[in-house]
Amino acid sequence: MFSAFWAFQIIIAKLGFIAGAKVLPFQIVLVLSAIATLAVLLLPKSGPDLGQLFKHRPSLFWKLFLANSIQSGLGTSLSIIGIALTAAINAGFLVKLATVTTILFAWIILKEKLSGLKIAVVFIMLFGAYLLTTKGQSFLPRVGDLFILGACFCWSLGNVMVRKFMTTQAVSADVITMQKPVASLPVFLALIGISVFSPGLLGDLSTVLECCSFTPSFIPYAIGSGICLALAWIYLYRTLNIATASYMTLMSMATPIIVSVLAMVILDEKLVLIQIAGAGLIILAGVVIYLSDIAYA
């Protein structure tokens, strides 16, 4: 379900940018929508637990806050900026490098096993994602590519940090999820403040991060994208609570297949034979995951 909601979030966001959305206004509406969604779904049950975590275990609260700020704040911001500055063909492949960075962080921080099977699955999935998103063609790096690579670093580091805290201290996955959009606010507010009061600091990014013009045409897409993002967060941390960080990032590789299908149906995009082969490799690697002990090793 995490892969499905992430795919819907990507497609809806793409439709929003086609409708003329700017990065920061889109993110503002997206984050507010995510907060509202989590408040409806999780607040009645997990709200008191979040308050207890803040009151009685402040050290853990702020550790999780930092991890969520890195993952959902910096990661989301960098990825959206990157998508705005690079071609979709580049972005589609580069975000999959989070698979590699997560497994490396999990190996270093969580001491997860770096088996030969896990390494093989990583390369199969990356090659499949490469064929699916680039049609087997090479691409030239752009400025936006660096932002997406930075987002991969932030996503991986944040998720591995959360996994470490969840394995060493008792804390509900839904409590962590509720904290996530709030923890991302400092990053968004900092970007908005710089954009409004000191746009010169952004240099060539001042146009991309222009704030804050809201047009009715993109708001429904931002709301829908925020709802899907909130649901993806819920399933992300519920899965991390029972499986390894490596497993979570490997299984998210189903996302490009779902995105491709949705793009064909909604955006009238087409798949060529080499892309179908890439999708097949990703599915094959997913089957290997389910038939092995990677999820818990």
Question: What does this protein structure show overall?
Answer:
The two termini are 22 Å apart. The longest helix has 34 residues. It is globular and about 55 Å long. The mean pLDDT is 80. It has 297 residues and is an all-alpha fold. The relative contact order is 0.21. It is 77% helix and 0% strand. It has one domain.
The largest pleated sheet is described as:
none
Spatial separation of the terminal alpha carbons:
22 Å
Helix content: over 70%
Summed up, the helix count is 12
- Pattern of helices and strands: HHHHHHHHHHHH
**Oligomeric state of the chains?**
single chain
Question: What percent strand?
Answer: under 5%
Question: What is the count of distinct domains?
Answer: 1
| Number of beta strands | 0
**Which blocks of ≥5 consecutive residues have pLDDT under 50?**
none
Q: What's the mean pLDDT score?
A: 80
Structural class: mainly alpha
Rg, rounded, reads 19 Å
Q: Which term fits the overall shape?
A: globular
Q: Which helices and strands appear, and what pairs or packs with what?
A:
Layout: H1 2-18, H2 23-56, H3 58-85, H4 88-94, H5 98-109, H6 116-134, H7 143-168, H8 173-197, H9 219-240, H10 245-251, H11 255-266, H12 273-291
Domain EamA: 3-133, 143-290
Transmembrane segments: 24-43, 64-85, 117-133, 139-162, 182-202, 218-236, 248-266, 272-291
InterPro entries: EamA_dom (IPR000620), EmrE-like (IPR037185)
